[in-house]
Amino acid sequence: MRFEIVARSPDTPARAGLFHTPHGSIETPAFMPVGTQATVKGLLPGDLVPIRPQCVLSNAYHLALRPGATMVARRGGLHAFMRWDGPMLTDSGGFQVFSLAPLRQIDDQGVTIASHLDGRKRRFTPASVMRIEEQLGADIIMPLDVCIGYPSTRPETELALERTHAWVLHAARARRRPDQALFAIVQGGMEPDLRVQAARALAAEPFPGYAIGGLSVGEPRAVTDELVALTAAELPQDRPRYLMGVGAPDQLLAYAAAGVDLFDCVLPTRLGRTGYAYTAGGKLNVARAALRAEPGPLDPDCACTTCTRYSRGYLHHLVRAGEPLAARLLSLHNVAYLVTLLRTFRARLIGDARAAPA
Amino acid sequence: MRFEIVARSPDTPARAGLFHTPHGSIETPAFMPVGTQATVKGLLPGDLVPIRPQCVLSNAYHLALRPGATMVARRGGLHAFMRWDGPMLTDSGGFQVFSLAPLRQIDDQGVTIASHLDGRKRRFTPASVMRIEEQLGADIIMPLDVCIGYPSTRPETELALERTHAWVLHAARARRRPDQALFAIVQGGMEPDLRVQAARALAAEPFPGYAIGGLSVGEPRAVTDELVALTAAELPQDRPRYLMGVGAPDQLLAYAAAGVDLFDCVLPTRLGRTGYAYTAGGKLNVARAALRAEPGPLDPDCACTTCTRYSRGYLHHLVRAGEPLAARLLSLHNVAYLVTLLRTFRARLIGDARAAPA
């Protein structure tokens, strides 16, 4: 799977790229909506098509527990199961193992957890997660990694990094499907030297792409900014860089400028379900009484179905009435907002690159 | 507004009709999806279009309390507010006044309630409800009526009927918009003689359509069957007949055969939200473990998006995972199922009428 850089910013490490996958090419920088359980919450693939997201995420851990990777494989894989025929990425679920499983025991070879659904014990190893992701059949697959909380001690961070590094290499040896791109994951907590060391070590291996994990877990924004820039700069120029789980609008723009190519975040749908909408003026609480009489759209510059068809007054009514359509229309807009934000960034970057002196 | 009968069953009182409204013609018999709060729960007008419902319902009582009829009028009326441009009917909310309001005081002139939303006192009269429905702007409007529970005594039934009759006539005098059809409502509880008396009295007045209210409130099915047939037979042949709030599939077919033209019911979306789907074999609990591995659609004969695109296994997964898409896809199917049931009934009736000896 080939990554092609089509333009570079004359001023920053930002670049515009194309990552070619068996289900189409991903125009980067791109925001990828999250469909943890084989559905972007409340939205159908048909709703997403006009928004043109470049790639949709799902989650190996969640789908392995329910309905089971074998069941998805029998339905023809994740693309056929959820009827999304564009590029898809599955996260291994390393983060979920550590955040959701009530009991977990980690050793050098993998992790044993009690399922958050039924308490039953399950064993995940770098190789078993590859088997799961091969059954799901996404275009980009992520290895099992060790996630730590914030704050963590230096020894905790070192041990997690050591295991993540070994597991990434183990996953690379265990994988079998040549039509899937396995990305490496850079961890290293909040320690700049460990981040640099991890990025360099993985950059030495021929991965088709590199992820930056373990950020936006509660640390101050300045720390995130520093570590993203530092890590991105250490990764190979000719491979895509994916910053995991970060998706606030200003962060997307800042980190795309720092040379990050791919982003995902559950925020747009989570905010939508709780009555909030992204706008150029910031996050809008749609339940606010002031919106009741507003005839205009959420965002006059947005081309999504919500903004082209419904007034703020109607959306306010739906939120106040507790109607399920509120979550759907706001989720749709929020996803469109982030996808469009980076599409516009990309178009401008290509324009700037053309205009720059050779 | 004109009702045209295009075919009559050679065997039963059933008929196929066209009710012409300013927003298009309603092909009857028809099932009308319910959009109580200016939205069919979880569905967009755009989702409904391929299902081709002939008319969508909304509710004057609910919208008067929130967001307020004046607010809807300022947004251009209900059609523009919720972006449904086909025929629409508003129920007065008589039923909701009696089922939702924690405190209500009824007299000959109207009803005073404490709002179920904020406890504030509101007064509804036959004339004030006409003003509300005129602001909402539906094509078919219903007068305020007095609904009673099951069982009720004969004197309670008589008093409610007397008031309903007076209020219907009062509404007819108070209404102003010539582009709206005010239907009369036949009450009379479970008393056959009162039903007949009410139907005859209202049939003597020139209403463009007649509703049968107060059934399917807990009475035995045989009683519903008898009263529907009895009442429908007393109503004018050349006007549409609307049976309020009844929508089980077998009842739609039975009562369409008895000469009922219009139906509504919240069941298809309510069942969808609780994980149930209509099928030719009966109501299906989509959470049942047996569906986990089923590759086929909910209903192989159904042309809705849910059935043409998604497997039972996927829908089962969504229900089990508590995903909002489950409610949406099952609601969509259930509405399509009932709409199609009566569309097919109508097509067959027209075919039978053509084939019958003249």
Question: Overview of this structure, please?
Answer:
2 copies of one chain form a homodimer. With 358 residues, chain A is of the alpha/beta class. Helices cover 41% and strands 19% of the residues of chain A. Chain A has 14 helices and 17 strands. In chain A, the strands form 5 sheets. A 5-stranded parallel β-sheet of chain A has the order 4-15-14-13-12. The first copy, chain A, has a 4-stranded parallel β-sheet with strand order 5-6-10-11. In chain A, helix 6 (126-136) crosses helix 7 (154-174) and helix 10 runs parallel beside helix 14 (324-355). Chain A binds chain B through residues 37-39, 41-44, 46, 62, 66-67, 71, 74-75, 81-83, 273, 292-293, 295, 305, 309-311, 313-314, 316-318, 320-321, 323-325, 327-329, and chain B through 37-39, 41-44, 46, 66-67, 71, 74-75, 81-83, 273, 292-293, 295, 305, 309-311, 313-314, 316-318, 320-321, 323-325, 327-329.
Interface with most residues: A-B, 38 and 37 residues
**Count of separate DSSP helical elements of chain A:** 14
Beta-strand portion of chain A reads: 15-25%
What summary fits the major beta sheet of chain A?
Answer: 5 strands, parallel
- Name the poorly predicted regions of chain A: none
| Oligomerization status of the protein chains | homodimer
State the secondary-structure class of chain A: alpha/beta
N-to-C CA distance of chain A: 29 Å
What's the shape of chain A?
globular
Order of strands across the biggest sheet of chain A?
Answer: 4-15-14-13-12
Number of DSSP strand runs of chain A: 17
Quick check: average pLDDT of chain A?
96
Radius of gyration of chain A: 20 Å
Q: In which range does the helix fraction of chain A lie?
A: 40-55%
